[in-house]
Design goal:
Length: 364
């Protein structure tokens, strides 16, 4: 039986997620094109791969985060700062457009932007009081809440089940989920696809231990998949699209009808309670961008391709199956997260049960 994660184990797990996610982006992009498009962002602070482990695991991490632009707890309502942490995604596009600044200026709110390479490090920044808002997938908030972060879910995307899937080689004899029994399946431990695999197996009459789980971060999983060292790979976009295009992978099953695979926007409980007007506006602006992206997918892919460092045909595939839309958090949506949290606790990935409803302000 697996031993429950201790607090130290949890920190190591989060640190691993930080390092491997950013490294995987670079490797997936390198596989798809010989030279990655260099970043032209000279104003945003970026936490890179080389310092991420030290950043999280040492006391220096807290000091570094504390050095980010900070705001006194009792800031004047007429001179507020909204500190946004963002990854290479929709918040990056929102930053480039400047529309959020325009909406918040009449409220006396100034925005500062800090770029991060992964969701867990954003949540660490939130935990030490260095950002007020960010974007993240399903799994990192579960670990953050279990570790005591003052997290508040404030918005969620619509379900996006087609953006994660079980991938097999093109000529694999595996034709159904039932055929996975006894096979080696690679995936990132404690991630959204970990939860997806558990539920997919359940839906198809298999137990979790009916497959041989091979815990690998995306970069290593891709290499194992390419060499034939594993029989299947459970992965999300754009890694999924890159493997379909670059490795001729075949989708065995995506998450449609199994799990929702939402993305989340977060703040702190204190900031969300005291700045509901700011949170409302930022959600509106993100959703406007979502709706534009839904109606202009080719243009959206053209913006994401250099941002992600991937060829446009790969990004086209990812963008085409994406579903767009963002709205306020609700109790029904939080219940979805609760099921994930309970699953992770049962798998001994988090050290204690958590109540996800405690990580929200006025959920509808």
């Amino acid at each position: 039986m697996s031993k429950p994660f201790s607090a130290a184990d949890l920190r190591r797990h989060i640190a691993q997620l930080l390092a491997v996610t950013a490294a995987s982006w670079s490797i997936a992009a390198a596989k798809a094109r010989s030279v990655l498009t260099p970043s032209t962002n000279t104003t945003a602070m970026t936490f890179d791969v080389s310092n991420r482990r030290r950043f999280v695991l040492s006391g220096v991490g807290a000091a570094a985060l504390a050095s980010l632009p900070s705001l006194p707890a009792q800031a004047q309502q007429t001179n507020r700062v909204f500190r946004v942490g963002h990854q290479k995604g929709f918040l990056s596009l929102l930053k480039g457009r400047g529309t959020l600044e325009q909406r918040l200026a009449p409220l006396g709110v100034k925005i500062s932007w800090t770029e991060f390479t992964a969701g867990p490090v954003q949540l660490e920044a939130l935990n030490v009081g260095s950002i007020d808002f960010g974007d993240v997938g399903e799994a990192p908030p579960i670990f953050a809440q279990a570790a005591g972060a003052p997290l508040a879910y404030v918005a969620a995307t619509v379900p996006r089940p087609a953006t994660e899937a079980v991938l097999v080689p093109k000529d694999s004899p595996i034709k159904s989920v039932a055929d996975l029994k006894g096979k080696k399946v690679a995936y990132n431990k404690g991630s959204n696809v970990h939860y997806f695999l558990v539920k997919l197996l359940e839906k198809n009459g298999l137990k979790y231990d009916d497959v041989q789980s091979v815990f690998l971060p995306p970069a290593d999983a891709r290499a194992a998949f390419e060499k034939g060292a594993v029989d299947a790979w459970v992965i999300w976009d754009p890694f999924l699209a890159a493997a379909e295009v670059g490795l001729n992978g075949r989708i065995l099953a995506d998450a449609t009808g199994v799990v929702n695979n939402r993305a989340y926007y977060f703040s702190t409980l204190d900031y969300a309670a005291k700045n509901a007007d700011v949170i409302k506006i930022v959600i509106e602006e993100i959703n406007k961008l979502d709706q534009w992206g839904s109606a202009n997918r080719d243009a959206l892919a053209a913006e994401f391709a250099p941002l992600w460092g991937l060829p446009k045909p790969v990004v086209d595939r990812s963008v085409t199956r994406q579903v767009y839309g963002t709205g306020p958090i609700t109790k029904a949506i939080l219940q979805e997260q609760q099921v994930i949290a309970d699953t992770f606790f049962n798998l001994k990935l988090i050290p204690k049960k958590i109540n996800v409803l405690e990580a929200a302000v006025n959920a509808g």
